[in-house]
Amino acid sequence: MRFAINHITAPNLSLEDFFSAARRLGLTEVEIRNDIPDVVNTMDPADVKAAAEKAGVEIVSINALYPFNVWSGDLPAKALALADYAAASGAKALVMCPLNDGTKVLFDDLVAALSAMKPILQERGLTGLVEPLGFPISSLRTKAEALRAIDAAGGGDVYRLVHDTFHHHLAGETELFPSRTGLVHISGVVDPAVAVDEMLDAHRVLVDGADRLENVAQIKALIAAGFDGVFSFEPFAEEVHALDDPETAVRDSITYVSAQL
C-alpha cells in the first residue's frame, strides 16, 4: 500500500520540513497546495522542484484548481498559470475541484470546462485529477457523473478521478472506479454528534479506530478491485493542524490503517 501525505496535514511546516517529515515517515510521494499552505503563490516553482529532488520525494499533485467547472472570468488564466507552475515544479498532476456554493452547473458546462482544460494539461504532460465534492451544495457530487463528463469531453487519456473517502461517504456513492482513479484522499470523522449531511472539512481528522466514514472498508474495497495507486492523508481539522508532533500522529494513523488490511 502506497501512502502519501498532503501538505495540509502539517501546514505549519515549511516545504523543506514537510518533505523531510515525509521521508522520515518512509514516504516518497507528497501533495502541495495553493491554499493552506499556499506554496504556489509564495515559492518559485524551480525552488520547489529543487527541494523535492534534494529530499527525494515526488510531487504527485498540486491542490487545487477551483472551480474548474466554471470556465469563465479569470478561471482560464488561473488554470493556465497553475498548469505552468505544476510543470515547472515537477508535479505530476493537478487536482480539480468543482464549484461548491450551492450554485448549479449544467452538465454541458462541465463538459466544456473539461474540453478546454484538456489541451492545457496535454501540452504540459500533466494529469487532471477530477475530485467530486460530496457536500449537499456541491455542483459535482459523484464520480459517476464526473466520468460521464470526462468521456463526453474525450478526456479518458488525460483525466483520472480522485476518490476522496470523506466525499465518497457524504455523496452516498457506492460504486468504485479503480481503473479510472488516479489518487485517493483519506481522512476520518470521529465526532459522534455531527450528522452526515452536516459534515464539513473542519471535521476531517486522521483515520483511527473511531472513524465514521468506513475508511478501512473503502480502502480494502479499492485494493481488492485493483487500485494500486497512492492513498494520501488529507485532514483539514484545526486540531490536526495544531499538533505539536504531526509526524507521530501520521505514523500512528499509517500503523492503524495498515494493521486493518
Describe the structure.
Residues 19-256 form the Xylose isomerase-like TIM barrel domain. It holds the Pfam family AP_endonuc_2. This is TIM barrel protein. There is one protein chain. This protein is an alpha/beta fold and 261 residues long. The chain has a single domain (2-260), classed as Divalent-metal-dependent TIM barrel enzymes (TIM Barrel). It contains nine helices and eight strands. It has helices at 15-24, 45-55, 75-89, 107-124, 143-152, 165-171, 215-224, 238-241, 246-260; strands at residues 2-6, 29-33, 58-65, 93-96, 127-130, 159-164, 181-186, 230-233. It has an eight-stranded parallel β-barrel, surrounded by five helices. β2, α2 (45-55) and β3 form a beta-alpha-beta unit. The chain is globular, with a radius of gyration of 17 Å.
Look at the helices and sheets and give the structural class.
Answer: alpha/beta
Give the overall shape, derived from the CA principal axes: globular
Q: How many structural units, i.e. domains? A: 1
Please give the radius of gyration in angstroms: 17 Å
Number of strands: 8
CATH fold descriptor: TIM Barrel
CATH homologous superfamily placement? Divalent-metal-dependent TIM barrel enzymes
Tell me which CATH architecture applies here: Alpha-Beta Barrel
- Distance from N terminus to C terminus (CA atoms, Å) equals 9 Å
Q: Please, what is the oligomeric state?
A: single chain
Helix-strand string: EHEHEHEHEHEHEHEHH
The total of helices stands at 9
Helix content: 25-40%
Main pleated sheet: 8 strands, parallel, barrel
Give the spatial strand order of the biggest sheet: 1-2-3-4-5-6-7-8
